[in-house]
Amino acid sequence: MRLRNKPWAKDLINENLDLIAIQPENMQGKWQTRFAKEQPIFIEVGSGKGRFITELAKQNPQNNYIAMEVQEGAIALILKKQVELKLPNLQLLLANGKDLSELFAENEVSGIYLNFSDPWPKTRHEKRRLTYKSFLKEYQYILKDDGYLQFKTDNQGLFEFSLISMNNYGMKFDELSLNLHEDEALNQNNIETEYEEKFSKKGFRINYLKAHFEN
């Protein structure tokens, strides 16, 4: 997802540094200090416009959540919502998701969400896919032993690649669906992203999995 430049974004960010981290390299092992309570931390890597992560935080006050975006325009849209909502268990992070081990300490995170990530369909770009083995290594480092990775995509090619990549890495699948919205058991607690709602209405199937690392 690419957003147009938002001239108001920088000012909004600088006015709300209690809600958003813009120098995250100093936060390894200290993320709990940014929340009202010390609770399990969950991250969404690539939060888009923020519907998923804000709703997740609303529904689960017993957990802490971090919305992570590399695009200033996107994170600013989420921040605009959070300025109004003031959810005590939601923080924002403006950073690139490729080096999570530089942003979070080992075993600091309880769960990671990847929703409708860029599929990077060309073979020469496979190392940029968020389920490539180098990214999986980063996730494994920051996740607790009982932590998990949850992934949704409408892109069949990316989903198939991800299944193979995770399997080859030795991950174990806890939940799996090739048509999430038709799976009554899994879909009942599903929170849709803006993108998911739009494309599922057009008939696109939503692929879903939840997996963990073997220790």
UniProtKB/TrEMBL annotation:
Involved pathway(s): tRNA modification; N(7)-methylguanine-tRNA biosynthesis
GO molecular-function term, one example from the UniProt record: tRNA (guanine(46)-N7)-methyltransferase activity
UniProt-listed Enzyme Commission number(s): 2.1.1.33
Amino acids binding S-adenosyl-L-methionine: 44, 69, 96, 118
Catalytic activity: guanosine(46) in tRNA + S-adenosyl-L-methionine = N(7)-methylguanosine(46) in tRNA + S-adenosyl-L-homocysteine
UniProt keyword Chaperone present: no
Region feature (Interaction with RNA): 124-129
Keyword Acyltransferase annotated: no
GO cellular component, one term: tRNA methyltransferase complex
Any matching Pfam family: Methyltransf_4
Broad EC category: transferase
Binding site for substrate: 122, 154, 193-196
SUPFAM superfamilies with a match to the protein in the record: S-adenosyl-L-methionine-dependent methyltransferases
Keywords: Methyltransferase, S-adenosyl-L-methionine, Transferase, tRNA processing
Family the UniProt entry places it in: Belongs to the class I-like SAM-binding methyltransferase superfamily. TrmB family.
Described purpose of this protein according to its UniProt entry: Catalyzes the formation of N(7)-methylguanine at position 46 (m7G46) in tRNA.
Protein name: tRNA (guanine-N(7)-)-methyltransferase
Protein source organism: Companilactobacillus mindensis DSM 14500
